[in-house]
């Protein structure tokens, strides 16, 4: 898991520390505003000083209460009844602590008066109304803490799920690329083998060209993205190897690229070319052809390939490449448009990718 326990603790510490600072400022403001009416004879500097002190005292009660309840919520895995008993006991102790601090310290020691509800009731310590006020003050704070912590945990869980999905997609893409390289190598070596059987003079050049292509597949294709200029160069190298063998083949490549530095995932475009050579070209067709048209304009890629084909397809055609590329496109460019038109005498593919769409990056 990319998110470690240590980073989780650091995140929790920062968020909770920030929460308590904000909460303290809010409580100081509210109590300072309330003290204007409760103690109008006090100068504002004294009232502010007293408010700062008493709110620090309240935090000594509220913080243990909040984290005791959180501990029971997260760690005490008994029945709901036992959990509720713990909750009630902790809250009762906190309310008693709140009342003792308010009645015996805040009023007599900080404000120098005896706590009263009004002129007719001298003491507020055991009065139900003030106890309820203390309870509501504590419960409001607990609700805020639980809300912050549950939200933090949900965000952390979403981040973990997102990272797991990303790791899974990376692993799947790696496996797909691993399937491509042996498949591509097998087809190319098979072509060179045919040339060697004929003792063709171009065989050494084809081997050298293959070496260049495999260097691209091993090193360049390991990157997440590569410039479309380099990807096109690899396609041209591949076509050159195939043309050495297929002398009768007409290959026309037209490119119109307004941004050669535009990045694209490697080994995507070449697979359509590979399929065109493997499944669309036959020695029995004297006028075999492949037409490739690639255009990149304003961040929108339009890629068209058309090739001649036999009316009777190859018996052992696995179409691994096409299945593979469909899956890669789904993972890398979810909003791509891929159109395949399979006719009796020709095969046409059109791919459109909008690189301006951030969801496809």
From TrEMBL:
<keyword id="KW-0175">Coiled coil</keyword>
<keyword id="KW-0472">Membrane</keyword>
<feature type="transmembrane region" description="Helical">
    <location>
        <begin position="85"/>
        <end position="106"/>
    </location>
</feature>
<dbReference type="GO" id="GO:0016020">
    <property type="term" value="C:membrane"/>
</dbReference>
<keyword id="KW-1133">Transmembrane helix</keyword>
<dbReference type="InterPro" id="IPR050640">
    <property type="entry name" value="Bact_2-comp_sensor_kinase"/>
</dbReference>
<keyword id="KW-0418">Kinase</keyword>
<dbReference type="GO" id="GO:0000155">
    <property type="term" value="F:phosphorelay sensor kinase activity"/>
</dbReference>
<dbReference type="InterPro" id="IPR010559">
    <property type="entry name" value="Sig_transdc_His_kin_internal"/>
</dbReference>
<feature type="transmembrane region" description="Helical">
    <location>
        <begin position="126"/>
        <end position="148"/>
    </location>
</feature>
<feature type="domain" description="Signal transduction histidine kinase internal region">
    <location>
        <begin position="172"/>
        <end position="247"/>
    </location>
</feature>
<feature type="transmembrane region" description="Helical">
    <location>
        <begin position="17"/>
        <end position="36"/>
    </location>
</feature>
<feature type="transmembrane region" description="Helical">
    <location>
        <begin position="56"/>
        <end position="73"/>
    </location>
</feature>
<protein>
    <submittedName>
        <fullName>Histidine kinase</fullName>
    </submittedName>
</protein>
<dbReference type="InterPro" id="IPR036890">
    <property type="entry name" value="HATPase_C_sf"/>
</dbReference>
<feature type="coiled-coil region">
    <location>
        <begin position="147"/>
        <end position="174"/>
    </location>
</feature>
<keyword id="KW-0812">Transmembrane</keyword>
<dbReference type="Pfam" id="PF06580">
    <property type="entry name" value="His_kinase"/>
</dbReference>
<keyword id="KW-0808">Transferase</keyword>
